# Entry
Amino acid sequence: MAGVVLRGRFPRRRMVQVVATNVFRYIFRGAARNWVRNMGSTAPALGSMTLLLFLSGVIGLSGLALYNLEQVEAGQASVLHVYVRDNAASADVDALWDRLAQDPRVASVAFTTRAEALKRAQRIPGLPQLADASESNPFPASLDVQVKKIDDVAAIDVLVRNDIAVDTSYPTSYDQGAYQRIQAVLFGVAVAGLAFLALLAFVAVTVTVNSIRAAIHSRRDEVAIMQLVGAPRWMVRGPFVVEGAITGGLAGVVGGAVTFMTGMAAGSSSFAQFAPGITVTVAALAAGIVFAAGLGLGSGSSLVSLRRHLES
Amino acid sequence: MRSIVEFKGVTRAYGSRLALDDVHLALEPGELSFLVGPSGAGKTTLLKLINREIRPTSGEVWVDGIAAHSLKASHVADVRKRVGVVFQDYKLLPRLTAMENVALALQVSDLRVSDEEASDRALDALEAVGLGDRGKAFPHQLSGGQQQRVAVARAVVAQPPLLIADEPTGNLDIDTSWEMMDLFGDIAAFGTAVLIATHNVEIVRRLQRRVLTLVQGRLVRDQPAGRTGRLAWLASS
# Structure
């Protein structure tokens, strides 16, 4: 009589546990062990990647600070200070004020007295000493005109320059091309920073690719045997990608920490006017991005190396 | 019955040189066959085509129903799981014990195999090749014959339908070589197709199994089992 073999179902949970254990062992534990074993050949990659990530973080923060600075400058450049003559009649000043307020290109007009001008000047580095050097208040009263478009500032300047209420020797704060000069400088700094980063990224990726190539070379027999006994491709590649991610992750942790500390120092009160907008949150976010970039850079470089050297 | 391996008009060229030229053959389950021929005849190329280490220039290679000739690199493991491989230089991992070498092959080809199951099956395979008591030994602590037995245990532990061996007795003395041949005979008796590339004329003549003779890339003779024929390639070597 033919018998029927009954096989018990293998519990699914147990299966998942076994697969997870094996994946952890062959991909992650194996990668960590090999990383420690190959630390000597990995050190240059770790160093160059840490340097790249730290500089990326600092350049990123600097870029943000420059952007904020440019916004501040743009805001200041669109405010035209129309300096009022010391002995100007209040009716003339009022007439000029009304004329400006009714101009469609003007957003708002405010009056600053001489005393307010002095107070404002005392908040600007270097000017308090200048104010103290003079017995009388050297700062004139002004109509502060907020122009809607920065391109219209020149036209408003022409409009008010010869008004009877306006100081003839120093009529307005308009400085032709000042804003454009700041923009040009910022653009140059940004391009130089990006070019430097690109060069450093190339060096870091090349060094990492070579270190992974050395790792592949030192384990070529093991890799060949794994392939021959039927290990799927992801299982052969996985440990190398994880090794790259460990290198990148460590570089990211160091680079991120230094970026955070640099951001905190830059955001402190003594530097706040040079690095506006650099807060604890921004510094922490930059550190997080640097860490994630490290992971991506490390594993990405490993993949490039695997494609070049393992497949061949 | 479906053939385990089937070559249909297979040609493989390296540049302008033909390593294999229009080869047709089929291997059946439980069949032990020898692949003979002079050096450079194409034996290793034929084995590499079966294990999908290379692709044919033209023709078709089927392994246990899988079209190895058109298989993408990402699916090569599907063929490798069905083919056990034994090399002349054993190719054991020196930092692993005999048991770990065998268990590794089992687990990397099937992640669902637990440690306990892998150990049990690796021990069974080592016992089958007569090394049940040497499981904890590292390769450098074993003789050449014992290392080759571990390699055979590793090749069959996942019970593949096909075992290929490239000069498996090349580094062994004659007594150990005969022991290895007995082992291959036992494996074939359990239904596994076994293909052995060898230069050992004595073994090929005495065992009287199927003999495939390659000369300059062409399959010049396919001698069925049970016959004692002239080894054609000897005349040309």
Remarks:
- Chain B has a mean pLDDT of 90.
- Chain B touches chain A through 23 residues (CB under 8 Å).
- Residues 92-159 of chain B form one domain.
- The longest strand of chain B covers residues 17-27.
